[in-house]
Amino acid sequence: MPNFSYVQPRSIKEAIQHLSSNSARIHAGGTDLLGCLRDEVFSAKKVVSLCRLSDLRGIRMTKEGGLRIGALTTIAEVANNKMIQQHYPALSKAASEVASPQLRNQGTLGGNLCQKPRCWYYRGEFHCLRKGGDRCYAYHGENDYHAILGSGGICYIVHPSDTAPPLMAYEATVQVVGPKGSKLIPLQKFYVLPNEDVQRETVLKRDEIVTEILLPRPAKGLRSSYRKVRARQSWDFALAGVALALRFDSDRVVKARVVLSGAAPIPWRSKEAEGVITGKRLDADTVAQASKAALKNAESLEENLYKIPLFRGLIEEELSAIAKT
Ligand SMILES: Cc1cc2nc3c(=O)[nH]c(=O)nc-3n(C[C@H](O)[C@H](O)[C@H](O)COP(=O)(O)OP(=O)(O)OC[C@H]3O[C@@H](n4cnc5c(N)ncnc54)[C@H](O)[C@@H]3O)c2cc1C
Ligand code: SF4
User: Fold this and answer.
1) Which of 3, 36, 158, 251 has the most CB atoms within 10 Å of its CB?
2) What's the first-to-final CA gap in the chain, in angstroms?
């Protein structure tokens, strides 16, 4: 691995000062960052560890009845927290299905949201568009796991985080601190599509740190779920996944958030499916229409056509299941 200096600042202000140098990178649990540095996906002259920033750990209830989750809270803590299990079950389920127990104990929620994509060309030696090159190698290459929505015909990564889709479905916000102070960014506006900037995954600037993830108080009648399909039952990223956060009044959906994982370069909110189910009972006809609408704009590559029926079936099953809970 190329050499870098390693610092452990004791305050957020000090961390931000270290990050002002162009080739500095944030280190939280390091489960993604160190692999990227070792494989030279990108380089760093300085690695800025957040490990001494104890204010960034822990899960607290807000006075409005929502939750604040520190960015350094481990994924295992998120999965096992009783408040999250009770009020935000889609998030605890998603967290419990991230990677392996070892990675959940070491990886943090902030790092999970900011991790780099898993496209094997990007992770390998290929100087593709996302690394500043002139082509996408996946387009004519091995693209079984790649995107069917939102690529813009530019880059076909799928967003890798399991926790981001349920957090987006719950309308979470991230608190970001940088040299100009602190700001709140709805998760919905946090991720960047390839047609906006193919070399970035989030709106974060190099010297900005995610400090907290804020969840609003769950509304009356809210039901939620997360389901992930993967190629094998041990640790693996999502081939397809769906997070639902639906508010019911009696048996009718009055507000819907449907967010897909494994489908697009960002956690993909399906406004088409939401539009079909809002105001309706989730009967068989509505559920079938919603799953069809969600995939209306999907475009497959040579080897990932299977994802379209997979997502259709998954969305139908999950909507039917949530109607019965
Ligand atoms: C074998 C394997 C299997 C995996 N399977 C899954 C899976 O099934 N589902 C899934 O969701 N993930 C999976 N992952 C990814 C794993 O969950 C992430 O590596 C982990 O969540 C990253 O957290 P971390 O704290 O270790 O981040 P780090 O590795 O420290 O950082 C990751 C990236 O985020 C940036 N970063 C970290 N924290 C912050 C912050 N607070 N503010 C701004 N930027 C920050 C870093 O600079 C870096 O670029 C897998 C990883 C591995 C190695
Ligand atoms: S899908 Fe994106 S990351 Fe993968 S090779 Fe194409 S441009 Fe690079």
Assistant:
1) 158
2) 50
